[in-house]
Amino acid sequence: MEVTARAPGKIILSGEHAVVHGSTAVAASINLYISVTLRLPSPSGHWLEFSWPIGRIKEALSELDGIDCSTPTTCSGKFAESISALVEEQNIPEAKIALASGVSAFLWLYTCIQGFKPATVIVTSELPLGSGLGSSAAICVALSATFLAFSKSVSLDKGHQGWLDFGENELELLNKWAFEGEKIIHGKPSGIDNLKGYCIDCILYSAGNMIKFKSGSLTRIKSAVPLRMLITNTKVGRNTKALVAGVSERTLRHPDAMISVFNAVDSISKELSTIIQAPAPDEISVTEKEEKIGESMEMNQGLLQCMGVSHASIETVLRTTLKFKLTSKLTGAGGGGCVLTLLPTLLSGTVVDKVIAELETCGFQCLTAGIGGKGVQVSFSGSS
Ligand SMILES: Nc1ncnc2c1ncn2[C@@H]1O[C@H](COP(=O)(O)OP(=O)(O)OP(=O)(O)O)[C@@H](O)[C@H]1O
Ligand SMILES: C[C@@](O)(CCO)CC(=O)[O-]
Ligand SMILES: [Mg+2]
Question: Locate the GHMP kinase N-terminal domain: which residues (predicted)?
Fold first, then answer.
């Protein structure tokens, strides 16, 4: 028997960086997923493969024997050292070394939740890694969901055909495990990523849709109309910690100006969440709504430039999409990473194709995504 879980990626529609300084931010799940399949047990054969004899894992993590998967546990001290040793033994090629922390999170979540059972785990991703679309939290949510689906702590109908949602209590347990995985990948998630011991990305990926948050308080919101974005991955790597520190330094140099910038972002995020939730019963009101959303994105981008987190590659995307009268803003930490471009409902497919073609000639990767998609789901197949 096997189970597959999928968890979506996310975008920040408004408020990155300013959220660290107390402003409101709006984030949404997208309909691009990381999927994890668990086979008990089965042969493998994939392009990048890591495997350990069960005996080796038992030897390295023997103290985890019998651990209760209903109690999420932090990977610290000697466990972190043992996990690092197991990952080092795989001699991950230099070009793929960024995966090491994801592999560590996998080992931790698997051993804690599934114990020392032999299995094959297959990961596939529609999300670019390390580009601001939350692949780290998505992988942790999808791994936790797959492993919990076969555990005694979660009761799911294994005979169900197609995708299944988790119940409220089960989501809570899943979130806590995913957060333990995120801590392995990120060290200490901060700001937008972290809320009272939970990972905001994980919450978003678990339940899907959109959230508005400010200083530790989170409200779920639901878009009244479907929204579609072009996501351009500039492929320019960024360092979130350094970018966040840069904004704080600028705030120390220009406190009055920067407080005004953060207040402006707060107003934009609040307005955006009101616009998104307002009903739009006909084509005219949908177009008006999209124009307002586009304007709020444009204003937010201007303020992100004031904070000093734009980048030449981001500016190239902005200029290119503007030629087609489309508005864009960076999403996430900036300094490269991904840029969002609003695709209005009435925009023709030919225009979308032309924009994508022009962006791809600059060396960027383009993805289109629906906004506010489903949260984590699982699907069982095969006979037990
Ligand atoms: N499919 C995957 N397989 C293994 N590891 C993964 C996978 N997806 C993500 N990761 C891990 O997550 C890391 C990327 O996380 P990071 O937080 O830097 O970026 P992100 O989550 O994509 O974007 P952000 O957190 O800025 O929204 C990768 O380096 C890897 O360790
Ligand atoms: C830049 C930032 O606002 C979002 C990064 O995804 C940082 C944070 O909130 O932790
Ligand atoms: Mg991440």
Answer: 115-194
**Is residue 165 packed enough to be buried (19+ CB in 10 Å), middle (13-18) or exposed (0-12)?**
middle
In this predicted structure, what is the pLDDT of residue 380? 94
Q: What is the pLDDT of residues 148-176, one digit of tens each?
A: 998 988 888 889 999 998 888 888 899 89
Q: Which ligand is nearest to the CA of 335?
A: 2
Q: How far is ligand 2, taken at its centre, from the CA of residue 24, in Å?
A: 12
Cα distance between residue 366 and residue 50, in whole Å: 29
The pair of structure tokens assigned to 381 is: 């197949």
193 is catalytic: yes
* Distance in Å, CA 193 to ligand 2 centroid: 7
Indicate whether residue 136 lines ligand 2 (CB < 6 A). no
Structure confidence at residue 164 (pLDDT) = 93
Instruction: For residues 207 and 220, give the distance between their C-alpha atoms in angstroms, rounded to a whole number.
Output: 9
Q: Which CATH number is 223-371's, of 3.30.70.100, 3.30.830.10, 3.30.70.890, 2.60.40.10?
A: 3.30.70.890
Q: State the pTM of this model.
A: 0.90
Taking the CA of residue 192 as reference, the ligand 2 atom at the shortest distance is: 9
Query: Would you call 344 helix, strand, or coil by DSSP?
Result: coil
Instruction: List the catalytic residue out of 193, 201, 282, 353.
Output: 193
Q: How far are the Cα atoms of 3, 6, 149, 163 from residue 379, in angstroms, in the given order?
A: 6, 9, 9, 5
Domain spans, the chain: 2-220+373-381, 223-371
Which-ligand-closest: CA of 124?
1
- Domain 2-220+373-381: which topology? Ribosomal Protein S5; domain 2 (3.30.230)
Residue 139 Cβ inside 6 Å of ligand 1? The answer reads: yes
Residues of the chain scoring pLDDT < 50? 44-46, 190-191, 194-197, 384
Pick from 10, 11, 13, 19 the residue to mutate for probing ligand 2's pocket: most ligand atoms within 8 Å of its CB.
19
Q: Which of 376, 372, 115 is CA-nearest to residue 226?
A: 372
